[in-house]
């Protein structure tokens, strides 16, 4: 089934960390879009998973996203190497991913999830790298390997499916 479904999705927020974000190209916009995803997930009861790469060095998750879920600390770039992460994403839910950096932690995690035959949606307007070229190359590679590249609004409206959804008006405020 090509469409995302809120009832069988999990939002994965990768390494939106305080000391990293000032170096990320277009960081404030990416954090804002990730915030929209978090708010939509809360409205529609979509479970969330948050990771932090080397939190002692890169700091905690940015305040705007910190309350989404307890963070899973990791040292490996690929979050799939952390047993707590694998436990948090257990099952066969679609994984809707946002985070940093597209070509390092985010990219390696996505490729690993695809290797494990998970259905992955990469939210390109909520994914960042320090250098735009790195993000572009990574997104193309992820798509070639089977990730669906989507936008924040695509996620929101596919999760809703209809203007008759009880949370439609509240969700609409997230994109206006």
TrEMBL record:
Domain Isochorismatase-like: residue ranges: 11-153
Pfam families: Isochorismatase (PF00857)
SUPFAM superfamilies on file: Isochorismatase-like hydrolases (SSF52499)
Protein's name in the database: Isochorismatase family protein
The organism of origin for this protein: Bosea eneae
């Amino acid at each position: 089934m090509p469409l995302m479904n809120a009832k069988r999705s999990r939002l994965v927020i990768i390494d939106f960390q305080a000391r990293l974000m000032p170096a990320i190209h277009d960081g404030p916009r990416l954090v804002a879009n990730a915030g929209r995803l978090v708010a939509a997930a809360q409205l529609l009861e979509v479970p969330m998973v948050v990771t932090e790469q080397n939190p002692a060095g890169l700091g905690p998750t940015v305040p705007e996203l910190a309350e989404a879920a307890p963070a899973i600390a990791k040292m490996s770039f690929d979050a799939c190497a952390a047993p707590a992460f694998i436990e948090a994403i257990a099952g066969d839910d679609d994984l809707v991913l946002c985070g940093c950096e597209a070509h390092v932690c985010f990219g390696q995690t996505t490729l690993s999830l695809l290797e494990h035959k998970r259905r992955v949606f990469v939210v390109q307007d909520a994914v960042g790298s320090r250098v735009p070229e790195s993000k572009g190359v990574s997104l193309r590679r992820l798509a070639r390997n089977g990730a669906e590249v989507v936008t924040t609004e695509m996620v929101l409206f596919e999760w809703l499916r209809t203007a008759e959804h009880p949370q439609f008006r509240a969700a609409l405020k997230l994109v206006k």
